[in-house]
């Protein structure tokens, strides 16, 4: 339905997006993950025609839309990272304004406004000024605005950052219903892995402007099929411990955690006795040792060297 072909954006000598190919099939919910600065928002800006690519293409149903993006704008709804509302207007007035921008017919707009307000749980608050709303409520109005013209594709750029749990749950449920019950195609970026696992059928992982992996959850987890993830809780952690554990046979990666270290090692290798020896020689003790089933967070860390929130 929607695809990018070798999509690239260069600023002076830096490639913010470096030749990426992604696609969305009709009715899919697809996650786009990456640490800060990976190029996610730049990619979204090019797909939604807000930013012209340096090279590459954006295609809708197989046809290039770079030169004439009007059809993409018609079928696309975008919920940006930043709140895009008029604070001095009510939720109702904001939606009326955006409905006219989207050229929703006058005889349709009022009903459509009430439908989207109901969808985001703000129908009873529609006459209140946006400046009186919490951050989560403002984001819900943003989502309502993006839905006014009944888009076939909805792009949400980190819609739950810094909001209250109630609004977060409401947004997640709204996105799920849009996809499962209304058939809306979703492209969803987030700093919360559990959201993507809950909402998305497929995932792209992006780092330094490139797509470093893509596939279903099971396909991505298979990347670590030859490795074990081991959580080790320690009485104290030090740089010396981390460096010595990194030097152990079969150990492929070590990361410090809040209460110890996370080790990626060759699958099936028995490193416990050597690990105990190293830890005790550094005057620390192991209080808990657990081999975990790999998660998407582990795959992300393995591929990018960062946690999702870095």
A few lines on this structure:
This is ATP-binding cassette domain-containing protein. 35% of the residues lie in helices and 29% in strands.
List the helices and strands and how they pair.
Blueprint: E1 2-11, E2 14-24, E3 29-33, H1 40-47, E4 55-60, E5 63-64, H2 70-75, E6 76-79, H3 91-101, H4 106-119, H5 135-147, E7 153-157, H6 165-180, E8 185-189, H7 193-199, E9 202-207, E10 210-216, H8 217-221, E11 227-234, H9 239-246, E12 251-256, E13 260-266, H10 272-281, E14 286-292, H11 296-304
Parallel strand pairs: 3-8, 3-9, 6-7, 7-8
Antiparallel strand pairs: 1-2, 1-4, 4-5, 9-10, 11-13, 11-14, 12-13
Helix pairs in contact: 3-4, 3-5, 4-5, 5-6
What does this structure look like?
This protein has 310 residues and is α/β, with parallel strands linked by helices. It has two domains: 220 residues, Rossmann fold (3-Layer(aba) Sandwich), CATH 3.40.50; 68 residues, 2-Layer Sandwich (Alpha-Beta Plaits). Helix content is 35%, strand content 29%. Strand 12 and strand 13 form a beta hairpin. Helix 3 packs parallel to helix 5. The longest helix has 16 residues. The protein is elongated and about 75 Å long. Belongs to the ABC transporter superfamily. Drug exporter-1 (DrugE1) (TC 3.A.1.105) family.
List its salient traits.
310 residues, alpha/beta, Alpha-Beta Plaits, 2 domains, 11 helices, 35% helix, 29% strand, elongated
């Amino acid at each position: 339905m929607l695809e990018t072909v070798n999509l690239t954006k260069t600023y002076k000598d830096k490639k913010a997006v470096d030749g990426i190919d992604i696609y969305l099939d009709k009715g899919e919910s697809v996650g786009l993950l990456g640490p800060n600065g990976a190029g996610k928002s730049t990619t979204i800006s090019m797909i939604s025609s807000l930013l012209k690519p340096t090279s590459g293409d954006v295609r809708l149903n197989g046809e290039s839309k770079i030169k004439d993006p009007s059809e993409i704008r018609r079928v696309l709804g975008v919920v940006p990272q930043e709140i895009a509302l008029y604070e001095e207007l009510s939720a109702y007035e904001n939606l009326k304004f955006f409905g006219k921008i989207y050229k929703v017919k006058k005889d349709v707009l009022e009903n459509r406004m009430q439908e989207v307000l109901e969808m985001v749980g703000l129908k009873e608050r529609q006459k209140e000024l946006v400046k009186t709303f919490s951050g989560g409520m403002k984001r819900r109005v943003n989502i309502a605005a993006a839905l006014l013209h009944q888009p076939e594709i909805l792009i949400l750029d980190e819609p739950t950052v810094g909001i209250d749990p109630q609004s977060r749950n409401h947004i997640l449920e709204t996105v799920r219903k849009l996809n499962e019950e209304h058939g809306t195609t979703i492209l969803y970026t987030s700093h919360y892995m559990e959201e993507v696992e809950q909402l998305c059928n497929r995932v792209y992982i992006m780092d330094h402007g490139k797509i470093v992996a893509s596939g279903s959850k099971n396909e991505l987890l298979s990347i670590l099929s030859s490795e074990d993830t081991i959580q080790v809780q320690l009485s104290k952690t030090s740089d010396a411990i981390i460096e010595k554990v990194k030097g152990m046979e079969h150990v492929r990666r070590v990361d410090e955690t809040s209460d110890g270290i996370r080790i990626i090692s060759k699958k099936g290798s028995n490193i416990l006795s050597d690990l105990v020896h190293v830890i005790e020689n550094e005057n620390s003790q192991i209080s808990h040792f657990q081999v975990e089933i790999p998660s998407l967070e582990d795959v992300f860390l393995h591929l990018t060297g960062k946690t999702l929130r870095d």
